Amino acid sequence: MLKEVIATRYIAPLREGGSLPGLVEADDLGTYVMKFTGAGQGRKTLVAEVVCGGLARRLGLRVPGLVTIALDPVLGLGEPDQEVQELLKSSGGLNLGMDFLSRALGFDSLAFGVSREEAGRVVWFDALVNNVDRSWRNPNLLVRQGELWLIDHGATMIWHHNWPGAQASAAKPYDASDHALAPFGPDVAGAAAELAPRVTEELLAEVTAEIPDEWLTDEPGFESPDELRRAYAEPLLARAAVIHERIKGAQ
Ligand SMILES: Nc1ncnc2c1ncn2[C@@H]1O[C@H](COP(=O)(O)OP(=O)(O)O)[C@@H](O)[C@H]1O
Ligand SMILES: [Mg+2]
User: Fold this and answer.
1) Which of 227, 209, 210 is nearest to 218 (CA)?
2) Ligand 2: centre distance to CA 224 (Å)
3) Which segments constitute the HipA-like kinase domain (predicted)?
4) Which residues line ligand 1 (CB under 6 A)?
5) Which residue lies with its CA nearest to atom 16 of ligand 1?
6) 246 in helix, strand or coil?
7) Residue extents of the structural domains in the chain
8) H or E element: which one contains 248?
């Protein structure tokens, strides 16, 4: 289970991408980047963050730690910004939080070098989860004290938007030609040799167990949250074995 905290103060919106995550303070005095159940694609985005964040961390990639944040919509009442107020009001219950990386800078490929090995691990991982949101236009990478951090895994696993077609969708190749780290000559084969054997059924069960039940209920075609957890694990297990041969544009 992810640690659960309670939001005590809304600090500010982070207006970079489209989903309007917010900076909040919680009852453990931590500062978190909060992603709201009431935003855009709602809870599926949050599920994607939990699955990808948990998997990346277990594979040794740098990702911010995750928590769930309970939100009382009353917190939105004092917000002057209408859009923020609506978001808070529609996000009662459990939301996702990630450790705020203070003093991190946005990744700039001209200012920061990445080794072939590290680029390979990131590209291979993004191919595995089918991340379409790490292009040079919008890298969703942060740099802090000379280290690269991966953020924003909401736009991954496109197959979870259409479960009946999931198998076919997950068999598709990954186009890395626009990937933010494509210019660094990613060693995808090396990354696959190192990481693919670690993506086991057990590991995926551990990762998907961290998805809160309340984001998995009422999914058409599924009887229980655990059945849906297995549906998340399956395409990832299948892709781990083959995806390095189906990455286009990175070598
Ligand atoms: N854990 C974090 N620590 C510091 N800054 C963050 C963190 N997560 C996100 N940000 C900042 O907020 C911006 C938006 O967050 P992101 O997760 O990319 O959401 P979206 O693109 O959907 O709005 C990022 O580009 C980054 O500048
Ligand atoms: Mg983003």
Assistant:
1) 227
2) 31
3) 12-240
4) 14, 16-19, 21, 33, 64, 98-101, 104, 106, 140, 142, 151-152, 154
5) 152
6) helix
7) 3-99, 105-248
8) strand 247-248
Q: What is the pLDDT of residue 17?
A: 67
How far apart are the CA of 35 and the centre of ligand 1, in A?
10
User: How confident is the model over 27-52, as a mean pLDDT?
Assistant: 94
pLDDT (tens digit, 9 = 90+) per residue, 53-111? 999 999 999 999 999 999 999 988 888 999 999 999 999 999 999 999 999 999 999 99
Distance CA 238, CA 245 (A): 13
Which tokens go with 190? 């090396």
Give the CA angle between residues 69, 228, 90 to the nearest 5°: 35
The yes-or-no verdict on residue 41 having pLDDT over 90 is no
- The best mutation among 14, 84, 147 to test binding of ligand 1, ranked by most ligand atoms within 8 Å of the C-beta, falls on 14
Examine the pLDDT at 40 and tell me if it is beyond 90: no
Residue 153 has phi, psi (to 5 degrees) of -110, 30
